[in-house]
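Morning, I've got a small favour to ask if you have a moment. I owe you a coffee for this, so here goes:
>
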Amino acid sequence: MFTLAQMQAPQLPDLPTGPSLDRVRGPVEIPLFETWQIVGISAGGVVLTALAIWAIAAMIRKQRNAPSPVEPRTAALRTIEVAAQHSGDDDSRFAQITAGALHRYYEDGLGIRTQGQTTQELTQRLEAAPLELVEAHAALKGFLKECDQIKFARKQLSPTEREQLSKTAVQIIELCSQRKETTSR
């Protein structure tokens, strides 16, 4: 039997003449990163870590210094009071701020979407609202119609009318607050 080891290998041709390979050195080790790259990455890491620590500390400081959230009822009453004191003779501005306070109270305190709605849209929406607030909703409808006349028809208010309008807004908020407390118990 004839085995592979006994086979004669074909003769390889001679190498062509050319430059000598006797000056070739062994393999050269190439580092993954150069020294300047390692220093740059390390410095960048230190800077990013410092920024992250600073941002977290700032967020914690901000949370500690943040005022406690104001109850919607309190915020609305304050806004009405400020509108009455600081709107001067500008009845339109007074009506706008006072009506806005009631809109925000209904939105935040009662969960009834009112922002961006006209008086007519809000009136239709309130007709489908809970029955325990019927008195407050009726008072709100009249209040908003009065405010619309002041804002759009340029109705002028006497100091007594202005004070009465403020009292009406406060009464609406108080009525809603009482009903809300009664139903939540």
About this structure: The helical segments are 35-65, 72-86, 91-110, 119-127, 134-152, 159-184. The mean pLDDT is 82. The longest helix spans residues 35-65.
